[in-house]
Amino acid sequence: MKKLINDPQQVVAESVAGFALAHSDLVTMSQDPDALFVSRAGGAVPGKVGLVSGGGSGHEPLHAGFVGVGMLDAAVPGAVFTSPTPDPIQAATKAADGGAGVLHIVKNYTGDVLNFETAAELAEMDDITVKTVVVNDDVAVQDSLYTAGRRGVAGTVLVEKIAGAAAERGDDLEKVHEIATRVNAGVRSMGVALTACTVPHAGKPSFDLGEDEIEIGIGIHGEPGRERIPAASADEITGHLLTAVADDLQVTSGDKLLLMVNGMGGTPASELYIVYGRARAMLEERGATVERSLVGNYVTSLEMQGASVTVLRLDDELTDLYDAPVVTTALRWGA
Amino acid sequence: MKKLINDPQQVVAESVAGFALAHSDLVTMSQDPDALFVSRAGGAVPGKVGLVSGGGSGHEPLHAGFVGVGMLDAAVPGAVFTSPTPDPIQAATKAADGGAGVLHIVKNYTGDVLNFETAAELAEMDDITVKTVVVNDDVAVQDSLYTAGRRGVAGTVLVEKIAGAAAERGDDLEKVHEIATRVNAGVRSMGVALTACTVPHAGKPSFDLGEDEIEIGIGIHGEPGRERIPAASADEITGHLLTAVADDLQVTSGDKLLLMVNGMGGTPASELYIVYGRARAMLEERGATVERSLVGNYVTSLEMQGASVTVLRLDDELTDLYDAPVVTTALRWGA
Question: Which fold has domain B187-314?
């Protein structure tokens, strides 16, 4: 294992500290190392619904990279590929509360769901109203290594962006929750791994893939997908992913879509754009139009090589909210 | 070799096509496949100095990711790790010319320098005044595999950003060239490779690194650096890079600096922030202050794992120009 790290146990603490230093204009790090979270510089916005997300580290820029105006108020990083405990989630919820309640955005992994649930109960004791959306956009498998039901993957970014814009325009908790739920209902993803990744404290790859093997439907922690197949062309691989996603979403003629191609961390941008081109052509063959596009590393698995394809069905309101200004380290436009 | 590609010979054409489709609000792709370049949507801005850069592909988002308002007017991608020929550079220069002349920003590699020189002569025959800045920020080695003198690496992004802002505010060609030259004079970089990368049409890694070996001072095409050393901690590696950079730049107490930590393509963001934290602490130990920070994948080497550290000495004018609005796919703020 060769990594740019010091102590494997300190990877999260050191990288979050560096992140907060580099972007002190946008974010602040909590001072309590036992309740580590990143929140918006300047603190909670009075009267605005607060948005909190979090989960195991190793998926950067998710989630801390999406803290800022128009998106998250706070993000809670756990150890690598390990859910944060309820305490820091509770602390982050408190920090994000501007008096209008807080939305928890949780990827569907058993540990995350349980810990956010406990944190929400603790927050209610502090008189903070919490509502939760559980993101489960991965169509690859039903039930998985760490999940009952479908896993939450790259679609989470779109839930955070669009719900964040709803909160920013002044929607109440009920409405922000409804918007987040609508995004989750209309978004589907599936990914592929060309290589495994190595968790720092484990010191060896989290699974084995042959020299000429790829895993279709990989999870973002290297959980098993649908099938292992021999290495194939970008067009063939994209065909597997896009067909599964578009079939599940029942994409039909006239649909207006957002197409996201997400890198797993170790994939050159040039390859993501090749996947994008093919995925877009396939959606257009179904008579749909791609109205918005997002291509890059947004929900990664450390240095894994691979990509995922995400499709969101848009309506006018979701499009407007997606286009609304956002000022975070990983997404930034319009302001 | 496992990659998300189709025909290795078509990687650049297919990825640039996908890029142009995904970001048609910001960029346009030339229609002539024999003169491939990406330019600002909407075309040249009348009366504004045009900025053109380019070079071998495989370093994305450099250069096409920096085409847009406040940065480049056109970018010319060659084959992977291979300079574009004069023809597309000439065509891009024509497309970027708004009547106020064009600045060529060229990384110091023999092929790039020659081909941009020829293109500039061709452009002069079209009555376009061209001035050139050759970027040579890499302190690792004097002369290299493809270079006489120092190589041009991640500092190129800062030259493009700051000169682009000067052109956008209406500076004439003389002044934009002076600003670009000033940035190049004040910027230094050095990188490290943990793994090699594989050029698609070569099909095998461009060099060999042992299981526990890293290369300090690596070039962005895998050219040899200063030395191979056993794998070390992030702090030790950052020590090598930052010391070389800061010594060469003669960083002293009171200096105001921009610190950039650039990923080589396959490095998790968390690792870049660990490097950032250590590099910043070392600069502060010298009594300098880090006034601006940039951390991410900006000048990559396909899927190489590794990073580079870049330091730019700021003055008030360079800081203002760096802060000025930029709207490109890879850098975006303030507008």
Answer: Hypothetical Protein Tm841; Chain: A;domain 3 (3.30.1180)
